[in-house]
Amino acid sequence: MANDTFEPKIxxxxxxxxxxxxxDLAGTARIKYSPNVRIIRVMCSGxxxxxxxxxxxxxxxxxxxxxxxxxxxxxxxxxxxxxxRRYYMLKHMxxxxxxxxxxxxxxxxxxxxxxxxxxxxxKFVEDVRKLGxxxxxxxxxxxxxxxxxxxxxxxxxxxSLEVLP
Amino acid sequence: MAERVGVYVCHxxxxxxxxxxxxxxxxxxxxxxxxVVVARDYKFMCSSLGQAMIEEDIKKEGLTRVVVAxxxxxxxxxTFRRACENAGLNPYLCQMTNIREHVSWVSKDRAKATEKAxxxxxxxxxxxxxxxxxxxxxxxxxxxxxxxxxxIAGLQATLELADAGYPxxxxxxxxxxxxxxxxxxxxxxxLDCSACILTPKMSExxxxxxxxxxxxxxxxxxxxxxxxxxxKIRKKARYVEEDKCTGCGICVEKCPRKVVDHDFxxxxxxxxxxxxxxxxxxxxxxxxxxxxxxxxxxxxxxxxEKLCPTGAINFDxxxxxxxxxxGNIIVATGWKMFDCKKIPQYGYGRLANVFTALEFERMCxxxxxxxxxxVLRDGKTEPQSVAxxxxxxxxxxxxxxxxxxxxxxxxxxxxxLVLEKTKAEVYxxxxxxxxxxxxxEEFYHRLLEEGMHFVRGKVAEVTDAARRPEEAGKLIIQVExxxxxxxxxxxxxxxxxxGALEPQADxxxxxxxxxxxxxxxxxxxxxxxxxxxxxxxxxGIFVAGVCQGPKDIPASVAQGAAAAARVMxxxxxxxVMIEPVVASIIEEKCSGCRICNNxxxxxxxxxxxxxxxxxxxxxxxxxxxTCVAACPAGAITGAHFSNxxxxxxxEGILWDAVHGNGGAGVKEGQPVxx
Lengths: 165, 674
Ligand SMILES: Cc1cc2nc3c(=O)[nH]c(=O)nc-3n(C[C@H](O)[C@H](O)[C@H](O)COP(=O)(O)OP(=O)(O)OC[C@H]3O[C@@H](n4cnc5c(N)ncnc54)[C@H](O)[C@@H]3O)c2cc1C
Ligand code: SF4
Ligand code: SF4
Ligand code: FES
Description:
The complex is a heterodimer. Chain A has 6 helices and 4 strands; from the N terminus they run βαβαβαβααα. By secondary structure, chain A is of the alpha/beta class. Chain A has a single domain (about 5-135), classed as Rossmann fold. By secondary structure, chain B is of the alpha/beta class. In chain B, α2 crosses α3 (about 75-85). The chains are: A alpha/beta, B alpha/beta. The complex binds flavin-adenine dinucleotide, iron/sulfur cluster (2 copies) and FE2/S2 (inorganic) cluster (FES).
């Protein structure tokens, strides 16, 4: 549902070397863009654990953006390719959960591309605005278990892999 | 025990306060965020007074964690970490959040900007509570340095280090050091003779007691990390024993096989099957080119062996593998020229009198194939008119988007040489004239006065299809003159293509061995484009010269010296601090699946076959965190970016979604400047 007054909340995971610096540059150049994306710095897009994305959505984000260096320009050589693989896996996962896969987006921005990053952010905010609120946590709120539900998933996953010393 | 968090919100004059209600952000944090015991705003947090305020609070209020909401951590993280350390708090217990570059400077709406700033502060507060004290660790620095590439940049770096008293290994791929500068005749803008300024440096490097040269050699493998790299180099067989050869050159003289020299002479001259690339080569020890040697072709000849007075020729020589231990590495591998055949409409390779810039350099050189005479491909006719085409393969979206930087100046240099040595008319076809270094614009004016013709426009075609009688037998330049606003056809005898500087064909491959990255174009990426231009993301590896991006000789020399200075600082200090932002594996949790082993780009994860667990080699880990995200058992933790820390940060950043807005309000109409 498109909704003019709806302001999506979006979490952005930006790699330290390219895209975080692109966001710094957008600032230095006073480029204006939507305030809806809140930025978390990670060392590399390869650090973005799929559970980060799910956790953000589960806690009330309407969308998640991952930004890294261009393919071939990752400061850790090629870890953004790993981010790319996980991104497609995550899209599958969202579909399987019955969520719109377009609530997540992976973009590339080099340290010199403040303008491009700002454009990516504006575009994504508009696209998520069109999708409407996600309300994922609201479903859990009904049974008062929203945070625990997410934590339980991670915990079960860990336990299932626990090996005896 | 609950943490005691201090929150410090900076006005940055009006830079932040003009768009974000900083007082409200501080008030809100103090009132709503758990464990926040002090929340203040201040005009300039980074000033000494701001820092003193934090230090005092740490001591008086017993803060155990500090959050600074200000500018980018890339600017001031060190400042605030130091302040914490001064007050006895571990620097990794301080977290910065960026409400200037990421909030005030990019927002238009005060209320929304303030809301975003609150979210970022909440994120930092939640995160910092999970941060752990970390201690940087130190490794010893081996005082020996490896320099890869013996062009002017590599030579400069080598000599600076050697003169300072440190051992240097210089690895050069071709049989001699010198690089491209050795091919040139004159150098712009001063027109001093290239060999006269280069050869002293070459022989100094060849004779210096602290320099070990490995020419005709390449880097095979690099392991280890800053302070203690181990490098395997392969020294290709020369078939000449270096300790016996005196460099007399009889072998070269007597060798019956002559082939076109596509390397040093750029295809314009010849060499023998056994050769030194040029007379002043360092070392002067020749090599046998297996491809052209008659012995390797059909087991005949061995003339050189028979005639060598010292018996230095050895047809049984094998490639040699040498292992070097060094503390730092300087990469100075330079450039190669764009293959001008890729632009067929300019006719290189098809029209005889179209030359590349490198061919022309050799032609001008008094020691070159024509003895310095400017002549057509027939080897005798002097041209009456010469066209120089700029930006061949540069500033061209079909080939390379970047500007090669030096070609305009090289074109002017060529113009001067043609005017000096012949009676020809010279035309330059340029898109923009780029002469932006010391003495360059003056050189351009000099050429305008000397009578070189300048036509602004990108050449469409070079053709030999004459349309008018005066075009017969000539090469015709078809161009739109964008200053006159009309199409022109200019007949000339000779065309010079200013081919682009391109990264070496194996730049990416070498980068992978060293663990350094390249830009899309293939130039090595510096740590910071402005503030750290010769370091790379990999500690202990530096770049210098054109391999980092097109530049002229003075800039290459400056970078060579800068890289050497950086290395010297490391050697003098003796040990190097390693940021403790690294991964580690909890052995009890590791299932030994080895998924992480291949994920690490630095091979920092080894497998202990006996215990059947993986282990991170801390000194090699660069802390990207990819393995942390990948381990199915959750056995890997990433210091300073652990799952708990990032999860807490996510929870904080969505504070309003989780808790509602906590009674936040925004005061309107705060003065924009103090
Ligand atoms: C036509 C032309 C004319 C020019 N004229 C001028 C001028 O007049 N004045 C001026 O200031 N600049 C001039 N320049 C620019 C100048 O050529 C460069 O600035 C200079 O060559 C840069 O030196 P370098 O050491 O970085 O690279 P190079 O000179 O390219 O040296 C690199 C060295 O590294 C070696 N190498 C490469 N890869 C490896 C490897 N993997 N392992 C081991 N060794 C390796 C190469 O064999 C080479 O010896 C000109 C350029 C061109 C194209
Ligand atoms: S991925 Fe995890 S479980 Fe598998 S080997 Fe690496 S540390 Fe051990
Ligand atoms: S964090 Fe990155 S560099 Fe360190 S061991 Fe893991 S994959 Fe390798
Ligand atoms: S460092 Fe930017 S994507 Fe890896």
